[in-house]
Amino acid sequence: MILDGKRILITGVMTNDSIAFAAAERAQREGAEIVLTGFGRARRMTERAARRLPTPPDVLELDVNSPEDLAGVHDALAERWGRVDGVVHAIAFAPPDALGGNFLSTPPESAETAFRTSAYSLKAVAVALAPLMPAGGSVVGLDFDASVAWPVYDWMGVSKAALEAVSRYLARDLGARGVRVNLVSAGPLRTPAASGIPGFDDLAGVWERRAPLGWDTADPAPVADAVCLLLSDGARAISGEIVHVDGGFHAMGAEAVA
Q: Domain 7-248 is in which class?
């Protein structure tokens, strides 16, 4: 079991259809002890999903835009475990007017919300929990390829590009502490988050046609496996990396999305 004895915080579990849930399930089966986070009224959804894991974990309150919540999670994990070995960042949000072809008309407040929640939050979580990684650790974030402009993805795409930059700077600044920071760039999956992206079906269809290994939009297991690999000691010399788990789509030539 590649995560035997590891203590890992996993954010972003909303339902049992989410990528974060698949990562949590795989982490437990690989020997990790985990704690989840939830936020506001959606925390009840996280708690329901937690009960479907092999060993139901506790759920801590975490609004990643709240310094008080970040400090609270640090204190709770310090008391519970004394250390943290890994963190999974699976948090992204953009207001409706920042998606769906509204790029040119999106107000600055909505763009800022998308950036802060989806990109800056990686830094906020990593810095809050790095003191609990005195012997090093691993921070893994979930990404979607930001090397090109996607239809309707708009300011979430900009935020993912920022997330990729944030991960590199964190890898630079936390590396001296032995903390690795990497991203997993997943192909499109039919998750609760995807349901809020206009035109998702068109994007998923292109992926299914073009990925040389094929791509199953209903199967998050390959992404969960990659997340757990990066959390493990097997990735001890990998940092600042973006691992594409997308059936090879990212290496193929472009095709327009209708």
A: alpha beta
